[in-house]
Amino acid sequence: MTHDRYGSDVLSHDPHRARKPQTTDVPAERGLVVEDVTSGWVGAVVRVEKSGGEHVVVLEDRNGRTRTFTLGAGFWVDGKPVRLVAPRPQQRASGTARTASGSVAVSNARARVARASRIWVEGRHDAELVERVWGDDLRIEGVVVEMLDGVDHVVDRLTEFGPSSKRRVGVLVDHLVPGSKETRIADDVMARFPGVLVLGHPYVDVWQAVLPGRVGLEAWPHVPRGTDIKVGTLRALGWPARNQADIAAGWKRILGQVRDYKDLSPALLGRVEELVDFVTVD
Fold it and tell me: Which residues of 77-94 are buried (b: 16+ CB within 10 A; e: fewer)?
């Protein structure tokens, strides 16, 4: 049996160090030179941005190449371990404001003329949630969000629309999980139509993409098969659920608790942002 004198962690028994150095938090300010421990990539911070529901840092090496890393631990600055964090508010430029999606707000900007490309969502509640969080960004980009009234109609709508590489369609669907009807439709659509990207979240209804804590729940309730997901959810909350008016009122209460992207599940955040990127590529 071979004895490993270093153990499972080489750095934990480094004979040249009296004790393991402590990791400290360092704001990822533009121009800061850091090294990613895992890959060895060394570069200067170009920017910090939000991608897929999490903050990332973009580093540029001396040859002008860039790579993106998740903010957090695993970096070195001046030979010391650090945890990169987003710049503190007081260190950002004076007057900087953010949209509900976390993007830099553009003041006094006119909405761009609508692009030929579109984003389609399954229903009114999906459209209202997207508008609440991404509305400002979509107007700046000239992206129109349209209701699909169910993914079952997507083939007919695409045939009528005629998508292409210059006229793209991003489709957001509910319950896009392996083996579901929605997944089979998505695979068929993307194989048949160019310029189409179908993405979705795993929830049966977009209501569940709102973090349950926003309405005082630890988790969204399990609604038995055969019971309308919205009716079952309202009953679990103790809210009226007798008719469509009650459902509409319940959704308004839930939507009213959504302040910004931090109140939504990453499973939805990343998909919407990917669709926005897809339809705004020139």
Answer: eeeebbebeebeeeeeee
Higher pLDDT, 91 or 24: 24
C-alpha 14/C-alpha 16 separation (Å) is 5
Say yes or no to pLDDT of 258 above 50.
Answer: yes
State the first-to-last Cα distance of the chain, in angstroms, to the nearest integer: 61
Residue 1 has pLDDT above 70, yes or no: no
Going by their DSSP bridges, the two strands 80-85 and 144-147 should be labelled as unpaired
Provide the pairing of β-strand 196-200 with 169-173. parallel
Query: Quick one: angle between helices 244-256 and 229-237, nearest 10?
Result: 70
Provide the pLDDT for residue 155. Answer: 95
Find out whether 219 and 212 touch, Cβ atoms under 8 Å: yes
- What integer pLDDT is reported at residue 55 of this predicted model? 83
Residues 79-87 have a mean pLDDT of 89
Residue pointed to by tokens 């890959």: 39
pLDDT per position as a tens digit, 16-39: 455 567 888 999 887 788 999 999
Buried (b) or exposed (e) across 208-229, using 16+ Cβ within 10 A?
A: bbbebebbeeeebeebeeeeeb
Q: What percent of the chain has pLDDT over 70?
A: 83
Q: In this structure, are residues 53 and 269 in contact, taking their beta carbons and an 8 Å threshold?
A: yes
Q: Which two tokens stand for residue 262?
A: 């931090």
